[in-house]
Design goal:
Blueprint: E1 18-22, E2 25-28, E3 33-36, H1 39-42, H2 51-63, H3 74-87, E4 91-95, H4 98-115, E5 122-126, H5 135-140, H6 144-147, E6 157-160, H7 165-174, E7 178-184, E8 186-187, E9 193-194, H8 197-210, E10 213-217, E11 241-244, E12 255-259, H9 280-295, H10 298-317, E13 322-328, E14 331-336, H11 343-349, E15 352-353, E16 355-357, E17 361-364, H12 372-392
Parallel strand pairs: 3-15, 5-6, 5-7, 7-10
Antiparallel strand pairs: 1-2, 2-3, 4-12, 8-9, 11-12, 13-14, 14-17, 16-17
Helix pairs in contact: 2-9, 3-9, 7-8, 10-12
The structure holds pyridoxal-5'-phosphate.
Pyridoxal-5'-phosphate binds near residues 98, 189 and 245.
Amino acid sequence: MAASSPLMDTYGPQPLTISHGDGVWLFDTEGRRYLDGLSGIAVNTLGHNHPKLVAALREQVARVIHTSNLHAYPLRERLAQMLVDRSAMTNVFFCNSGLEANEAAIKIARKYGHDRGIDRPEIVVCEKAFHGRSLATLSATGNPKVQKGFEPLVEGFVRVALDDMDGLRRIAAERPGVTAVFLEAIQGEGGIRPAHLEYLRQVRRLCDERGWLLMIDEVQCGTGRTGKWFAHQWAGIVPDVMPLAKGLASGVPIGAVVAHGAAASVFGQGNHGSTFGGNPLAMRAGVTTIEVMEAEGLLANAAEVGEHLMASLRTELAGPGLVEVRGRGLMIGVELDRPCGELVGLCLAKGLVVNVTADSVIRLLPPLIFTREHADQLVGILAPLVREFLSRTPVAAA
Ligand SMILES: *Cc1c(COP(=O)(O)O)cnc(C)c1O
C-alpha cells in the first residue's frame, strides 16, 4: 500500500486488490481469478454473493436497516431462537464482532463472581489463545505480540496451557477467586489447535464441581465450520457461555454471546448494551445464513469435504518438513517445521488465497460451499508450492 494511504498502517502490505467475488472465487481489479481458501478469515460461510443472501439483504435494506434496541424487531428473536435451538442453550445477546462477544462473556464471568460475593473474580485463559484486540480481550489473549505496547493489561486473568488438566486442577486448588474457564474449542490464530475432546469433557466436569462458568470462544470455529453447528458439540458438552461472530452472518458484521443456565440471567437491564447490536440487516443475514446452510446441507458438506481435504494434504505433503495436518471440517492447519509466511504470496501468484498463522501454520478456512472438486483444485495449487518451498528453504530460516 502506498505510503500516502489515508488508512492507518495496521495490516501490512496487501498484495491483492479485490474487485468482486462469486461463489468460492475472488476476482482482482485486473480480472484475475482466485480460489478463496480463507473466506475473509472464516466469515464468508456461504461464499461470495450467494443468490439467496443477496436477495434477502436487498429486500431487508429496502425495508429497514437499523432500529435501536429500544424497539423490538421480530428477526432479533428469530435468530436468537435459531441459535438457542441449535446449541441447546437458552439466551442470546447480540453485538457486532468477535471481541465484543468476548467482552460480553468476560463481563458475565465477572458479574457472576460478584453476584456470588467474589470481589476480585478471575478467569482462566489459555496459552496461545486469541480473543480479540480490545483491552480486556487482548489481556485474555495468550500472545505477547498482541499485548506489547498496550500495558497495563486488564487484570483478572490466570493462564494455563490448552489441554493441561493438571494445571487447571492446580489453579482450582490455589485460587478461590476463579469464576470461569475461557477457551477456544479449536484455537484459530494460535495455529489451528483443537482442544482434545476428552479434555473439554473434563473441563466441563471441573466447572460443574467448582461452580465455574465454562465459556467457549467459537468466534472462528463455530457456525458450522467444523461440520457441527458448534465445535464443542464434537465433545458432547454444552458450555455456559459461547461467543460467536465471524461466519454467523456470512459477511455482514455480527457478534452474539449465547448463554445457558445461571449465566443466561447474569445480565439484567442496564448491565450491557450495543447501539448496532441486533440490527435488522445483520439479523436478516444471520437468519438467511442458517436457513441456506440447512437447505444446502452445508454442515455435512463441511465435514465431508474437510476430511477429504485433510486426507489429500496428508498424502501430498507426507515427508520431511511437514509437522502435521490437523483440524476439523473446513478449519484446517498445515504445520511446517519452519516459518512459511512467504507461501501466502506464492499461492496468490498461482490464484489461491490462504493465510499463514503462528509463523509456520498454513491456515485453510474455505467457504462451507466448497466441493471436493474445489478441494482438489486447492491441493493442486498448494501442494507443489509447499514441496518446492520445503526443498529450497533452510529449516532455521527466519
Ligand atoms: C477473530 C477472533 C476474535 C476477534 O474477532 P473480531 O471480530 O476480529 O473482534 C476472537 N476470538 C477468536 C477465536 C477469533 O478467531
